[in-house]
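Hi V.,

You were right to ask for the full record rather than a summary. Here it is.
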Amino acid sequence: MHTLVISNRKGGTAKTTVALNLAAELAGRGQRVLLLDLDTQGHCGVGLGVPPPAAEQTVHHLFENPAATLGGVIRASAEPMLWLAPANPLFDHGAGSRDPLRLRRAIDAEGLARHYDYIVIDTPPSLDNLLTNALMAGTRVLVPYVPHHLSYEGIRQLVRVLFPIMSGPNRALKVLGFVPTMASDSMRVHRAVNAATAGDFGASKLLPAIHNDIRLAEAMSRGQPIRRFAPTSRGARDFGLLADEVLRRL
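Predicted structure:
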């Protein structure tokens, strides 16, 4: 089982769009996928058309109640092979367990590796216990970024967070790659930032881009992944290419 952490320290990088649609594409390729929504905005549930749960039926209950289990909050989605552990939008980031291994211990103790091929974790942009738990539980990090300089600074901040974890308590964690989002092949600044990313981290770490496509926003508002809402759209094609590359690398 692979645990993919979708993260960027900067908000507004289409992180949830990537987490949701990559999870759906992997499921569409026959993989058993669990999507964990640690971002308290709760948009993974919105994008899958899953009604808001009660507070005690969310993944954040894991950090509020020592007796809580992941299995108790996982819900089936309308997408075959894709399950969701939804978020609690009212969760207080400063409250609850401070144990950085709470999530990893739950995954191991409940034997989720026997039930899923992939766990995809959507993370909050803030540097707090939720992000730390995701990174401690992860095996790969995938970083969406909008190719402009502020988003690139978010990459640099995240890498500074990753290094002590990857070189210490979670040596299994590796950077899978960087995904340009809302990308435009014709914009000079996008080309420049992508080139800088490839130069700093290696061209092999640059994953297929997700281009601007209004159909992605429409799909989210309809509670469907893009592969179901608009299967012939550019967004669906881009996410298909991204999923193929992720599977190839793993």
